[in-house]
Amino acid sequence: MLGLMQDWPLRIHRLIDHAARHHGARRVASRSVEGPFHATDYRTIRARSLRLAQRLAMEGVRPGDRVATMAWNTWRHIEAWYGITGAGAVYHTLNPRLFPDQIAWILNHAGSRMMLADLTFVPLLEKLAPRLPHVTRHVILTDAAHLPATSLPNATDYESWLAEADGDFDWVAVEENAAAGLCYTSGTTGEPKGVMYSHRSNVLHALAVAAPDMFGLASADRVMPVVPMFHANGWCLPYVAPMTGAGLVLPGPKLDGPSLHELMEREGVTFTAAVPTVWLGLLQHLESTGAALSTLKRVVIGGSACPRAMTAAFARRGVRVVHAWGMTETSPIGTVCGTKPEVAARDEEGLLDLQETQGFPPFTVDMRIVGDDGAEKPWDGETFGNLQVKGPTVTRGYFKADRDALTPDGWFETGDVATVAVPHPKWDERPLLLVVPKAGREISKQSLLDHIAPRVARWWLPDDVVVVDEIPHTATGKILKTKLRERFAGHFGMP
Fold first, then answer.
1. Which of 48, 163, 271, 433 is most buried, by CB atoms within 10 Å?
2. Domain-located, residue 477
């Protein structure tokens, strides 16, 4: 026997439909790439996204086609996400900080046929264009007055292009499990891997991470996603904010401390999210100027471990740090450090101890710790093991891969990409290259770094090269990362 509830597929457009109908006048403020501030609202974003979907259909874009974006967090990029998925196509976010060879590889692997890009990235794309014959249209996210002369094929400005659609269009009714977004991992152990999100997974993820013990957003919040939309699905904030009716504040290309602080104070930001290095710049600005955070209440910090001193610095200013862990493969939020009632009575130092941990998962993410022998290990805060996750917002495989990436009993192994990093006073962790030389060979640190430099993104370059006799391994041949971290914990890179 089946239930008698309505069939209401979980499509992404329903989020912006809800925001436009019930929170239509909610302010969405952006710092534009061109410079001036821009203000709009959810009702207008929904209308322009629908026109974008229509304009894509006019270009011949069909369900399942990939449409690439290389853009900062602005209102136009938000419109692009909803418009692309509203046409049944797949938004394919590109990280411009990757090495150009990797960007070209990713675009060719994804087969994206169109590019929506900010002015910032026109020179980069011009250099890549000869290697990307399948990208037949370039829409630059600006107006006619700011469109530069460019050699990009079929280049046009966004506003003129969008004006060719009248909005008399219906969202394309794809299946809820249809592909919606494509985001590539960093490729630290080989070529990048494509993670393909669905409409259903994104909507479920937004519902899950909006919960009180997770992001805890409400319509009274003003949300500033500093984490770029090209990083791990934008941490789902372009979906969570409209779904809850929270206002959006979008920083555009200026992510330095003074610029972020100006925007926070100007727009009354209550909630924000980014990696630790971003907040280091903000805290340094506050320290040097004596400025305050008059409206900010919560900051989500993920991407790498948040230093205790940073958590304490925010706490002194009345801001609660929410430590989070996730992966591109988990949509991306895997855990959030909320305060359960069992630990709420801790003193200040005890709460800081708690906030150094990554917390617990939202509903839709299950996890377990498994040893090298395949047996599940206890959650006692001491036992080490391989972290595995599963759920409707966790990938089961990679785009164009010939097999699923799951264990035989259906879990995703999060440790498939391993790094060895050491503590760093500014960046929290930086790469350290460990080399075991062949017999009779001598290693030149500089020659190794010179060899690596043209082949990887700049921030991946190790700060130092250390020659070791051997790399410790587990019984099953995996690198024993715990031993390496213990041994090199005090190594801070080249003098």
1. 271
2. yes
Is 6 part of any domain? no
Three-class SS state of 383: coil
Q: Tell me, what CATH number does 474's domain have?
A: 3.30.300.30
Q: Is 12 left (phi over 0), alpha (psi -120 to 50) or beta?
A: alpha
Owning domain of residue 472:
418-487
Is the separation of the CB atoms in 430 and 408 below 8 Å? no
- Same domain for 242 and 348, yes or no, is yes
The answer to whether 245 and 26 have CB atoms below 8 angstroms apart is yes
Whether residue 180 sits in one domain with residue 115: yes
Extract the tokens encoding 283: 């805290």
Looking at the structure, do residues 98 and 213 belong to the same domain, yes or no? yes
Which of 376, 391, 415 is a domain's end point? Answer: 415
The one-digit pLDDT tens for each residue of the chain (495 residues) are 999 999 999 999 999 999 999 999 999 999 999 999 999 999 999 999 999 999 999 999 999 999 999 999 999 999 999 999 999 999 999 999 998 999 999 999 999 999 999 999 999 999 999 999 999 999 999 999 999 999 999 999 999 999 999 999 999 999 999 999 999 997 655 789 999 999 999 999 999 999 999 999 999 999 999 999 999 999 999 999 999 999 999 999 999 999 999 999 999 999 999 999 899 999 999 999 999 999 999 999 998 888 899 999 999 999 999 999 999 999 999 999 998 899 889 999 989 988 888 889 999 999 998 887 888 988 877 777 889 999 999 999 999 998 899 999 999 998 732 227 455 555 556 678 888 887 788 888 888 888 877 766 666 678 788 888 887 754 334 466 667 777 887 775 433
Same structural domain for residues 299 and 446? Answer: no
CA 407 to chain CA mean position, Å: 25
Domain-located, residue 494: no
Given a contact cutoff of 8 angstroms between Cβ atoms, the answer to whether 310 and 279 are in contact is yes
> The whole model's pTM is what?
0.86
d(CA 133, CA 117): 17
Query: Is residue 339 helix, strand or coil?
Result: coil
Burial of residue 125 (number of CB atoms within 10 Å: 0-12, 13-18, 19+): buried
* DSSP secondary structure, 11-78, as one string: -THHHHHHHHHHSTT-EEEEE-SSSSEEEEEHHHHHHHHHHHHHHHHHTT--TT-EEEEE--BSHHHH
Examine residue 456 and state whether it is found in any structural domain, yes or no.
yes
- Within this chain, do residues 340 and 458 fall inside the same structural domain, yes or no? no
